[in-house]
Amino acid sequence: MILYGVAGLFCLFGLADATYLTVLALTGETAACGGQTGCFEVLGSAYARVAGIPVASFGVAGYFSAFTFATFAAFNYARARMFFALTVSLLFAVTLWLLYVQAFLLHAFCRYCLFSAAITFLLMGIVVASPSPRTSRN
Can you give the residue range of the structural domain that contains 121? Predict the structure, then answer.
């Protein structure tokens, strides 16, 4: 169950990143990109919002859900493992789409977005490496 504890820690890092970007989007502030040009193009693009809602806020919901399920899974709740896997799979699918948007539509990358993508890839690795709920005892 240490695997789910590590996953929970990664979720907290993702939650912090997504929360930072959500707050910036809602307050109209600019991100501290350190002079990286692609950061502003990505965060200010039309793809940064869906129906007026910052995409990062969906990340907040996703990472918070994944953290919750990882915590319950660490305490050996079988359903939590299943919901964790589903949540991370959804995060992974959205991440792949957003990486496509950055690479092929915007031709720019955001360091915060890439950090979130790395966390999502790590979480997906944990999902793949974790034992199936069917093979465990609970």
Answer: 2-129
pLDDT at residue 127 is higher than 80 = yes
- Residues 23-52 have a mean pLDDT of 89
> Across residues 9-30, what is the average pLDDT?
95
Sign of CA dihedral 42, 29, 33, 6: negative
Q: Would you call 53 helix, strand, or coil by DSSP? A: strand
Find how far residue 52's CA is from the centre of its chain: 20
Count of alpha carbons within 13 angstroms of residue 28, beta-carbon side: 0
CATH number at residue 10: 1.20.1440.130
pLDDT per residue over 88-123, tens digit each?
999 999 999 999 999 999 999 999 999 999 999 999
Alpha-carbon gap, residue 38 to 4, rounded angstroms: 34
pTM: 0.92
